[in-house]
Amino acid sequence: QAQLQESGGGLVEPGGSVRLSCTHSGRSLDKNAMGWFRQAPGKGRNFVAAISMDAWRTHYARGVRGRFIIPRDKSKNSVDLQMNNLESEDTALYCCAAATGPVPPEGVYDRGYEYQDWGQGTQVNVSA
């Protein structure tokens, strides 16, 4: 069954970088606002970053602002999460999500309930 699919996770040293990618094999993401969330072991799911349908607006959680970037490439039907200067606290399962809307072109969302479509996640472990 076609669904959102994340890739790019793995083991990274503190201070390192990793790029996650999210795509959908069964439909276009062009009309969706997109977001990334993460869930650390034993904790709840938390917002990380979001990008609007028109890609003009982005929104970041306070703890990742300045370190993470959420670019989207409509030619690849993908939304990435570039993670820089990683810390051990960034260790988590990272999931992408699509707000299938309809959504306004400039809308960005940081609440899980605002998203209707979710991927299974990719694990990022930050450790020396």
Question: Any overview of this molecule?
Answer:
By secondary structure, the protein is mainly β. The mean pLDDT is 96.
Q: What's the story with the biggest beta sheet?
A: 7 strands, mixed
The total beta strand count reads 12
Rg (CA only): 14 Å
Q: Briefly note the structural class of the backbone.
A: mainly beta
The best one-word shape is: globular
Element order, helices and strands? EEEEEEEEEEEE
End-to-end distance, in Å? 37 Å
As residue ranges, the low-confidence spans are: none
The overall pLDDT, averaged over residues, is 96
Task: Give the helices and strands, then pairings.
Elements: E1 4-7, E2 10-12, E3 18-24, E4 33-39, E5 45-51, E6 58-60, E7 68-69, E8 72-73, E9 78-83, E10 92-99, E11 117-118, E12 122-126
Parallel strand pairs: 2-12
Antiparallel strand pairs: 1-3, 3-9, 4-5, 4-10, 5-6, 7-9, 8-9, 10-11, 10-12
